[in-house]
Fold this protein.
Amino acid sequence: MSEQELYELATKRVNQRTRRWRLWALDLLGLIFVLMALIAFGERNYANLIAAVFIGWMGIFAMHSIFAWMAENRDGDIEKEVAKLRAALEYEKPKRLELSDDGELVDWDAETAEKAKHSS
């Protein structure tokens, strides 16, 4: 990927995260306004209606908070998994080494093992 493509992808992801938390903040603001209305009009005839709206909004806000938290964790989990996969693809199995007759380290391979087996 080019630098421009990475920049565009990062911008898109940051914008999505910002939009998610902006909606969460609006939801919280609405919940606060409903609570203020409940406090201000608690002595009126429609206080039960405002209380019901507040309780319903609290439930929606709690669900929204859980979904936002899960989305944030999902992004982190995806990044961790991608890092693991990259590491797995770049992993090179270490070569086996052995000492030659003169004491040098040499790569161990099937031919060397076969020669050693026949000479014994």
Observations:
- Strands lie at 97-99, 105-107.
- The mean pLDDT is 80.
- The helical segments are 3-40, 47-90, 110-119.
- Residues 47-90 form the longest helix (44 residues).
